[in-house]
Amino acid sequence: MSTIPDERLALLFTCCHPALAVDARIALTLREVGGLETREIARGFLVGEATLAQRLVRAKRRVREAGIPFRVPPDDLLPDRVPDVLRVIYLVFNEGYAASGGDALVRADLCAEAIRLAKLLCVLMPDEPEAFGLLALLLLQDSRREARVGPDGELVLLADQDRALWDRRAIDEGLRVLRRAEAHGRPGRYQLQASIAAGHAEGTDPRTIAAVYDALVEIDPSPVVRLNRAVAIALAGDVARGLGLLDGLEEELDGYAYLHAARADLLRRLERDDEAAASYRAALALTDNAAERRFLERRLREVGGPEVRA
Description:
By secondary structure, this protein is mainly α. Helix content is 66%, strand content 0%.
């Protein structure tokens, strides 16, 4: 018997079935329950759309051939599925926070639904600190929504945002939730990411934020986390070291627009404009979101590179 208080959340637990490989079940859940398109899911997994489509086909075939029973699991099986549910909610929010395509940078509907599901998960699993860590992260990230887009619809980077536009109530709620998560004494990847977001909200010294990334990469050494750590190190003052760390990620993240955009920014800071222009062009070639394209095109013009059109 399950006590999950929401149909959508119950479906997340149902689809995150352990009989499927981890990536397959998360991708299938994002497609069938989260409502994300294949290309949007592919970006979250850092793979091509065709590769992700093949995974979905294989997962559905596995479900049919093995007769996997998709039913809401009883309460005693829920804890084993929590990590997958957390990741699904996180990826839904990420697509809302920075849409992979279209004219708008933010899809507020996806952000709101992810936050709603995270809140329900905290009610369902009050002793799971990572559920509260994820909720804190989403609240803190979403608090900056109104400041992330300028009057012309262009992306505004964190350092250039008008903090008066940040949602103070969401920040305060996020900080309260983070304190509750940390009280368990079991830090995890979402709690550490929330700590970083809290540092930005409270104006923490960039060197302290970079140190939290050091702890995060010990738990989650994924290439995207290492990319973010490199950027944090650069923002803390060591631009050359940050650039060197980014260069070490090129093989793993060559098809990831944010790697090229981050590299371009650090090269720009070092006044290596020709190289920066090349990286901006590489980022543009991988970017479908109109707001992000306008930002990258402006930066490309600033370093003297010719404008690129899709």
